[in-house]
Design brief:
Nucleotidyl transferase AbiEii/AbiGii toxin family protein, Nuclear Transport Factor 2, Chain: A, 297 residues, two-stranded antiparallel sheet, 2 domains, AbiEii, alpha+beta, 5-stranded mixed sheet, 41% helix
């Protein structure tokens, strides 16, 4: 049996490794260690946490999530994500996880990306995963956590501090739930699908509506203004009605089966997807709550 750090043992007690996907459990634990390392290094003085993993970790979204997404508080083209790598690797090592970080250079992009990579089998053994489960994974399988920082973000968002207790108590600076909602709506309206719609976006949209959150139209406006092909030819006012028209257009274009396939491996109960259809999402759209009636584009 591996000698587990007591903080990791406490984190593992939240899961049942015979029921929960051990690969996703492992990734989630590593995500939280990375967040702790970033907080410890002062990263959240300059950036906020947002996206699906923020919903999962801070608001108990009932699905697993892959990436860590961040936005600077203010645009800064001189921001250097690599300055935090040493602290991330040090914290992971302190908790018994060996990893490397690979930086991905994107020319002519305001988004800085890096990947934390480690050996899945070694890490599963490190958290005392039962042998029959470990044996299901090839010895060469890598666990990857991508984290990205938008260095030129639309800045019209609300923010707040959230206390997170594992692996050690620390503060995370994040967007408000209403601004997070706006980011998700931007993804639903504007993400390029090619042939693979991201069902996780639609799952999260249902979650926001189910929980009665209001959509931050000010931040949505800023995001649409900065980047969205669907709005390139739209000038003047964009009302709630216009947003809903474009949302319903996206629903008509949505391949429901492919959307289900995308999200199914991230959720516990597949029955959550049974009602998914174009009619279902149109009904969801009609329930969206807006916190501003009209926005200027």
């Amino acid at each position: 049996m591996a000698n587990i750090h007591p903080h990791i043992e406490a984190m593992l007690n939240r899961y049942d490794l015979k029921k929960d996907d051990p690969f996703e459990v492992l990734r989630e634990i590593l995500q939280e260690i990375v967040l702790y390392a970033l907080s410890d290094a002062g990263f959240f003085k300059y950036a906020v946490f947002y996206g699906g993993t923020a919903l999962r970790i801070l608001y108990n979204l009932p699905r697993y999530s892959e990436d860590l997404d961040f936005s600077l508080i203010e645009p800064n083209d001189e921001f250097d994500l690599s300055r935090y790598e040493k602290n991330i690797l040090s914290h992971l090592n302190n908790y018994g996880f060996e990893a490397i970080i690979e930086t991905k250079i994107k020319e002519h992009s305001a988004v800085q990306s890096a990947f934390v990579k480690g050996n899945t089998v070694k890490h599963l053994i490190a958290i005392n995963t039962p042998e029959d489960i470990v044996n299901k994974y090839p010895s060469t399988k890598q666990l990857k956590i991508k984290f990205e920082v938008d260095t030129n973000p639309p800045v019209d968002f609300k923010e707040e501090e959230k206390l997170h207790l594992v692996p050690m108590p620390f503060q995370i600076r994040t967007m408000s739930i209403s601004s997070l909602y706006a980011g998700k709506m931007h993804a639903v309206l504007c993400r390029g699908w090619q042939s693979r719609p991201k069902g996780r976006d639609w799952y999260d949209l249902v979650w926001y509506v189910k929980n009665g959150y209001e959509l931050d139209m000010t931040h949505l406006q800023a995001r649409l203004k900065q980047s969205c092909k669907a709005f390139e030819d739209n000038i003047g006012d964009i009302s709630e009605k216009k947003v809903l028209e474009l949302l319903n257009k996206r629903i008509e274009e949505l391949d429901i089966k492919m959307a289900k396939d995308d999200v199914s491996r991230f959720i516990y109960d597949q029955r959550e997807l049974e009602l998914w259809s174009k009619e279902f999402f149109k009904a969801i759209a009609s329930m969206i709550k807006f916190n501003v009636f009209t926005i200027k584009y």
